[in-house]
Amino acid sequence: MSVHTLGTGGGPIVSSSRAGTSTAIRVDGATYVIDCGMGSIRNFRSSCAWSDLRAVFLTHHHSDHIYDLGSFLVTGWQVPGESFSRPIQVHGPGRPSRVPAMDAEHAAVVDARVGARSMRGTVDVVDALLDDVFASDICIRMADEGRSEPHEWVRAHDIVLPSQVPADPVADRHPDMEPFEIYRDELVTVSAILVDHRLCYPAFGFRVDSAYGSVVVSGDTAYSENCIRLARGADLLLHEVIDLEAILATFPDGPTRDGIEEHLRESHTPFDQVGKVAAAAGVGQLVLHHIVPNTPGTADVPKMVAAARRDFAGPVHAAEDNDRFLVSDQVRATVARETVEVGA
Hints:
It is built from 12 helices and 14 strands. The protein is of the alpha/beta class and about 350 residues long. Helix 10 (about 275-280) runs parallel beside helix 11. The longest helix has 13 residues, at about 255-265.
């Protein structure tokens, strides 16, 4: 089981040094991708093959996490020598019942601001990519090259919260809850939990368990007890990190800066808090990714690592694009092996 950082930059700002956030987890030759940030598809082929890809998981629908989704889904669609070997499963947030807000009073402001616009679920997003955005390309390739219907190769799923979870896009966007299973095959079980990404709802963290160990990807989140619960005892935690002062220093003064400052402050985990998350969860090692700011020379990465090490005694790494982290090449225990066999 290994982890490959296809993109380690956070935010929609274009960076020449880091692709947008994306992580590939490989187990016995199968590949599972979490998020599809800008430029990550170029790095996918450095360590993965289209025939190995089984599933894509989206933590949330902010643009910097889905920019390359269409590329992932169309590029492996019946290209000679570069094709999916099985239908790709895409799991991500469903459509919320309304545009999220901080409270009922703020909801009225939000409604006036967004007007007739509404949000979409992952099934809607994938359908739009295949049936609208790439519609002409797909029709021509079906007609000219004899390719089959792309929906036979790409199957989207909205993540459905357990009925007992009292989540609400206004009243409670990230209630205390337990992780719940969203995907299983003969190699891995994937679990999800709601995390705290301010108005972005639903926003998930994911855990991938295999016979070799476990990997958790925090998704975008402020300090979150749910994320700690998800990561309990995991071998490796990839957690987002932000240096708020450094990113704000790159923005000019003005009302737009004020608005994004509030979002960044309440939506992300400061570098001096991320070690506390890893320590509370008791993980084996901590990898910092979705690094903000993400452009060359703007983030003091050694400072981030040093701050995390003050609170977490295990190994701490700051990921760069195309890094590889080995979880284990040995099956751990009979219990883990039986868990995988049940899902076969």
